[in-house]
């Protein structure tokens, strides 16, 4: 099944994942388990654990439940496990929550990353580290061409500011410390990610599914806002590819990377919901338009991923319609009380199967 060199690389590798119980963390953990990696996960002891256990072979993972800000605990567990690769996903990832808890957001996203950077600087057994930030780290001027990795960082809300700050700190560490060591460290910025198992607050698809489950009206805030929607397995394939290249050519790949779909895959919120709804039959979604304009959201946010296309040979394998369809299948299975873990494994097989990918590329 996994014929690519970068995928084979992970067999029997020790991989440490922060935020492994989160939405992306569950998909990354499942993918690495299917590659037969040895995994230790480090996450908060919170409500996400239930979803993680339901959607992952959790007994195959050494799970530590603690705060990323507890530097002593984090360092102790990493030293005990001695991973070759670190994927740092732990974060406060919600823009709206960052207004309610700005200090917690900034501390988690900035100091959590700083702890990982310090640990990478200390231990020689770590060969590569992939740090996940966000497409919102860019100073958003709503430009059409899409942001490139060397564009200006910034942000007006606490979340975006925290992610831009983490990127600036990484850059300083990379220039001053990592270039002198045999370790590859990089940051990744991904566009809006969709997929099964995302239950985050104030996110379009989870809110739509909750409205069906709870038999409530579903309100759209900004139907004409556009986003670079992509399935969660797209950036994950990028993270895995990057983790491999950082290990074998650390000096060449230790930089920042965008992972987002091509320009023609940018669609607005109304289109997203229309495609989602058509794939949820027999479940019906009652859509209403909200007049609440208190929350300011960018109308356009787009990444330019040309560097990843050229240097990592990475690109999205599923187009936007396919990404929404796969996501809808997962939530439909959830609403029907079917085995969602089984479906995650099936979708991972479909995504990484060479035969499947050749077939899918004909759609682009």
Notes on the protein architecture:
- There is one protein chain.
- This protein has 364 residues and is of the alpha/beta class.
- The protein is 45% helix and 14% strand.
- It contains 15 helices and 13 strands.
- It has a 7-stranded parallel beta sheet, with helices on both faces. A two-stranded parallel ribbon has the order 7-10.
- Helix 3 links the parallel strand 2 and strand 3.
- It is globular and about 55 Å long.
- Mean pLDDT is 92; it is low at 355-364.
What descriptive keywords fit this protein?
45% helix, 15 helices, alpha/beta, seven-stranded parallel β-sheet, two-stranded parallel sheet, 364 residues
Head-to-tail CA distance between termini: 23 Å
Oligomer: single chain
Overall structural class, as computed from helix and strand content, comes to alpha/beta
Average pLDDT number: 92
Portion of residues in helices? Answer: 40-55%
